[in-house]
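Re: S-adenosylmethionine structure - here you go.
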Amino acid sequence: MLICPHCGKSLQKKDRAYVCAGRHSFDLSRQGYVNLLPVSARKTENPGDNAAMIACRRRFLSGGAYSPLREKVCEILQAFRPSSVLDCGCADGYYTEELAKRFPCVFGFDISRDAVRLAAATDKKAVYFVASSFRIPVSSASVDAVTRIFAPDAPEEFLRVLRRGGAFVEVLPGERHLSELKEILYETVRPNRVPSSVREGMKLLSEEELIYAFTPDADGRRDLYGMTPYAYKTGKSGEEKLAAAPVCPVTAHFVLRTYVRI
Ligand SMILES: C[S@@+](CC[C@H](N)C(=O)[O-])C[C@H]1O[C@@H](n2cnc3c(N)ncnc32)[C@H](O)[C@@H]1O
Ligand SMILES: [Zn+2]
């Protein structure tokens, strides 16, 4: 299933490396992931979420606030009984790890090496690699299911790697997602815009919303802030506003779309 990012030939695992027939070789890291992101494909030295954001994500998610979402994603996929699942933009593997407990061959990748390193260090079941969704080092029509959870959209690549009849599950922030957090940070708060569900080559089977409230403590809220783009947009002033605001319930609002590849 994995292919060489240089020549496109299939990759085989040999001892502590993945090798192709064209003699390109990619070492397994100490944590067990492989870096398949060519240097030429990196726009910056360390693309994707940085180590600090990933640490916030790991701490926040391990508190369980998004476990209903994780359960829902697994439940949706279970109906398709996939042998192989590819989790695109998997970050620290919160969803990937659970998928790997339920399905035989689970792969997770992210453009952030820090994220993949952490995922591979804790989850020994899924196969993790560093790559971009816009050039996935996976052969065409080889995957039974693809997930995109709050991660960049690469419609053509998702279509290419999925076999016919395969499932595509995406999770997007709903209109009210984290609205109370935004109310603390911004003067005016606009609802999140949910993009169109039209996807070429895919048929939408269902669209569901999952809405509930959770109440993070001060640390949990700081981590939640640190893993979102708000931290970049509002910086220190945002952190101060957040620290001064009383603990309050926050809305989790997810949109889950399930497609089949036609
Ligand atoms: C909002 S996070 C969501 C991560 C994870 N799916 C989750 O929900 O916990 C988005 C992730 O996409 C990754 N990312 C950004 N650009 C990417 C790309 N071109 N290819 C793959 N991953 C990318 C980031 O590094 C980050 O880990
Ligand atoms: Zn090669």
